[in-house]
Amino acid sequence: MVAVSGERWQDALYDLLRRHDVTQFAYVPDAGHRILIDRSLADPAVHSVSLTTEEEGVALLAGADLGGARGVLLMQSSGAGNCINMLSLAKGGRFPMLMLVSMRGDFGEGNPWQFPMGQAVEPVLQAMGVIVLRVERSDDVVPTAEAALTMVFQSGNAVAVLLTQRLLGAKAF
Amino acid sequence: MAMRYPQGVDVAAAIAAGFVLDRCEAVPALIGNPDDFLMVTGLAGTARDIAALTHDGAQIYTMAGAMGGATMIGLGLALARPDKRVLVATGDGEILMNVGALATVAVMNPANLSILVVDNGHYGETGWQKSHTSLGVDLERIAIGSGIQRTRTVAAEAELVEGARLLREGNGTAFVVLRVAPAEPPAFKRNFDPAACRVRFRSALLGNS
Q1: What domains can be seen in chain A, in order of their start residue?
Q2: Chain B residues in contact with A51 (beta carbon < 8 A)
């Protein structure tokens, strides 16, 4: 599915998630996910859950799955580090889990605090059994997210889609 | 039924601090008919309370890890199934590990979610070290400060009826702290396989896995 010309990829991504029956959107507010978060807040058909820490989102998604519902965890790369033990639910419990990760500490990053976790996201998530996909270009967002949705909700995996700084642009400091 | 206090627990201090109820009697009294709830439990003592109460029934998801996750699993389940009553039953240590979840839950305030904290003031599975609730931390006040509107502490037998009523009221998320003696929970061997328990729960609720 290709984004309609002129449509923001973020809107195409939100619509894709909704077409795949995602009804719980969990996040610690993050600039990279601003459009997805705002869409979920404005959508009466979904639950938009603001978390105090990202590990809550991992547990929330497991709870949604127990009830037969689908969720997505929107977080920044720094937040992935807050999820590690809770990802035992995915690796050991085999709960399907979809994560969209806006990258920091990546291409062009100007904040030194972002580098440790930004550079560690892939190995750390992989150590907890999460399949990691990277997106560098805007026309790759929807196809990758669609692949991830199938890998998660049809094949039962935990998948993290990294929206890299080459895609998002680096924050100015 | 005589309670079994573990070695090394300061029983006198616990009694003086108001941790006196027998969890083996008080937990069933608060919950009533366990078939009325889908239940998610935190690890350790409360998992045993609930497994014993339901004979490790398919309507419960108990954990032996993922500490700090029980409340949020309950929230996800409650949001997914507004037609069901969801009870999170957990211990003081488990809920303290992610006490911010109470703020997250309070903002969502699902009417079908109740949280029961079986607070014995100790970490029962790691050598009975005192937890923060034996040292002045008040979970009910944390819940109130987090924005949960319906809260109660039950520490005496006469208070059980009101606590039980609140868990079922359904007017917004309810939070009950049940203060119990630091004595052994029921000895009940439950299924420790997290994936098998997920399949069991979903099959019973959804008719498929």
Answers
A1: 9-167 (3.40.50.970)
A2: 104
